[in-house]
Design goal:
mainly alpha, 0% strand, elongated, single chain, 4 helices
Length: 101
C-alpha cells in the first residue's frame, strides 16, 4: 500500500509541475519547444517502466500493473508524436529542390 501511495504522490506532483511549466511558455514558442521536448522525453518511458516494476512487486499489483501499462503506452505515443511533429517542423525549413533526409 505504501508503494501505491508514493506513486500517486509522484504522479500528482508531476502533474502540477507540468501545468505550471507549460503555462509559463509564450504561445510563439509553445509548438517548437513542446515538439523538441516530446521528442527527447524518452525518459518518461523509463519512469513508467520503473513504476510498473514497483507495482508488480507490490502485493496488490493488478491495478498498479494496469496503470503502469497505460503509462508506458501513453509515454510511447508522446515520444513518437514528438518525433513526427519535429520532423514535420524541420521539413518546413528545407528548400524545394532538397530531397535528402
Amino acid at each position: 500500500m505504501h508503494e501505491i501511495m508514493l506513486l500517486i504522490f509522484v504522479f500528482v506532483i508531476a502533474g502540477f509541475l507540468g501545468v505550471e511549466l507549460i503555462s509559463k511558455v509564450p504561445s510563439q514558442l509553445h509548438t517548437p519547444l513542446m515538439s523538441g521536448t516530446n521528442a527527447i522525453s524518452g525518459i518518461t518511458i523509463v519512469g513508467a517502466m520503473s513504476a510498473t516494476a514497483v507495482a508488480v512487486l507490490a502485493p496488490c499489483s493488478t491495478i498498479g500493473m494496469v496503470f503502469g501499462i497505460i503509462a508506458i503506452v501513453l509515454a510511447a505515443i508522446n515520444v513518437v508524436g514528438g518525433y513526427l511533429v519535429t520532423d514535420r517542423m524541420l521539413g518546413m525549413f528545407k528548400k524545394k529542390g532538397d530531397n535528402q533526409k
